[in-house]
Amino acid sequence: MSKRYWLMKTEPDVFSIDDLERNKTTLWEGVRNYQARNYMMKDMQVGDEVLFYHSNAKPPGLAGFATVSKLAVADPLQFDKKSKYYDKKATKEKPIWHCVEVQFKKKFERYISLEEIKAQKNLASMLVIKKGMRLSIQPVEEKDYKEILSIGLRPHAEK
DNA sequence: GCCAACGTTGGC
DNA sequence: GCCAACGTTGGC
Predict the structure, then answer these.
(1) Residue A82's pLDDT is what?
(2) Nucleotide with smallest C1' distance to residue A33 CA
(3) What is the mean pLDDT of chain A?
(4) Is the CB of A129 under 7 A from strand C?
(5) Are A81 and A31 in contact (CB under 8 A)?
(6) CB closer than 7 A to strand B: which residues?
C-alpha cells in the first residue's frame, strides 16, 4: 500500500510537539471516537506521515510532523480503572480501542496557525479548516501535506 | 466561558 | 429504529 498522510490533533497542555521530541515516540492513547480509531486500526501503515496539530492552543495550528512507527495495538488505558479513558466494556481478549505508535520527525521552523491555513487558497480542501470538524485524526491529501511541509520548513528569514 | 456542531446513549 | 437529552470538542 502506498504511503498515506494524516493529521493528528493533540492539546499541547496534555501532550505537545515538545513532549514528542523529548520522548521520540508515543502511543497515541486516549482516542475514543470510532472513526478516528478505525483510521488507526485499518488504514495507518508504518511509514505513514503525520501532521502534528495543536488544538485548544493559542493559536491552534500545525507544530511539526511525525511518522507512524508501529501498527495499532490495544490501547492500554482502556483497561486502567484509574484512567479517564477506562472502558469497562473492554477486555484483554476483546479490546475496543486501538492506537498506533507515532515517532517524532521534526518541529516546524515556523508554526502554521489555523488562521494561516484558512488563508491559503491552495489548502482549501484540508478537512481541519472545515466548520464543525472535530475528528481528531484526519486523512490529508499528499499535495496538501507537501505544501504544509514546505511552509513549515521554510526558514523565518524567507518570509 | 460561550456555544455550535457533532457523537453517543437510552427510553420508547 | 427514532429522536431527545446529554456529553464532548474546540474555535472564538
Answers:
(1) 86
(2) B7
(3) 93
(4) no
(5) no
(6) A 33-35, 130-135
- Domains of chain A, residue spans: 5-152
The separation, in Å, between residue A97 CA and nucleotide B10 C1' comes to 22
DSSP assignments along A89-136, one per residue? T--SSS---EEEEEEEEEEEEEEEEHHHHHH-GGGTT-GGGSTT---S
Interatomic CA–C1' length for residue A1 and nucleotide C9, angstroms? 32
Task: Measure the CA–CA gap between A69 and A47, rounded to whole angstroms.
Answer: 6
The CATH number for A5-152, chosen from 1.20.1250.20, 3.40.50.10380, 3.40.190.10, 3.10.590.10, is 3.10.590.10
Distance measured from the CA of protein residue A131 to the C1' of nucleotide C6, in angstroms? 22
Residue A61 (CA) to nucleotide B7 (C1'), in angstroms, measures 24
Q: Is the pLDDT of residue A156 over 80?
A: no
For strand B, the positions having any atom within 7 A of a protein Cβ are: 4-8
* pLDDT tens for each residue of A105-138: 999 999 999 999 999 999 999 999 998 889 999 9
Place of cell 514546505: A150
Which grid coordinates belong to A93? 481478549
